[in-house]
């Protein structure tokens, strides 16, 4: 089963990261300005995509933020992308942000997974920059 896994330490408290990852304002500041996140649901729109991405959202005890795709991109239906938060592992302080995107539908082309992984790495770096006080701005416009 194909899975994207990324990790980095961020010089910010976990609560700040949960807020970024689970709110409209937060996701607009790190992923796409065309989104709405509220009441356990999320919609993400992208200029280069013919459909929106619709998801359910779950924050688990302030330790993870999980999105389950209900509809949208090919091969993404039913997939889960989530961020787990824990103590920094390679820095003296801060929060480790472990990201996974898993459970793609069968047949997802390897090259498409590679492009997806690269995009998630860019988003992960944008989250780090924003959480550490950088200028917010969505990774994908």
What does this structure look like?
The chain is of the alpha+beta class. It has a seven-stranded antiparallel beta sheet. The chain has helices at residues 14-22, 24-30, 110-131, and strands at residues 4-10, 35-38, 41-44, 53-60, 64-71, 80-87, 95-102. The chain is 27% helix and 33% strand. A hairpin with an 8-residue loop joins strand 3 (41-44) and strand 4 (53-60). It has one domain (4-131): Alpha-D-Glucose-1,6-Bisphosphate, Chain A, domain 4. Helix 1 (14-22) crosses helix 2 (24-30).
Which terms summarize this structure?
single chain; 7 strands; 33% strand; 3 helices; 141 residues; seven-stranded antiparallel β-sheet; Alpha-D-Glucose-1,6-Bisphosphate, Chain A, domain 4; alpha+beta; 27% helix
């Amino acid at each position: 089963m194909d899975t994207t896994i990324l990790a980095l330490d961020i010089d910010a408290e976990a609560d700040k990261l949960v807020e970024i990852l689970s709110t409209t304002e937060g996701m607009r500041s790190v992923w796409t300005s065309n989104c709405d996140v509220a009441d356990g649901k999320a919609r993400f729109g992208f200029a280069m995509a013919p459909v929106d991405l619709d998801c359910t959202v779950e924050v688990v005890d302030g330790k993870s933020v999980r999105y389950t795709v209900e509809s949208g991109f090919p091969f993404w239906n039913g997939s889960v992308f989530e961020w787990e938060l824990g103590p920094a592992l390679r820095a003296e302080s801060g929060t480790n942000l472990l990201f996974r995107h898993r459970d793609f539908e069968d047949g997802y082309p390897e090259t498409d997974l590679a492009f997806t992984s690269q995009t998630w790495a860019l988003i992960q770096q944008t989250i780090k920059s924003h959480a550490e006080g950088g200028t917010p701005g969505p990774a994908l416009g």
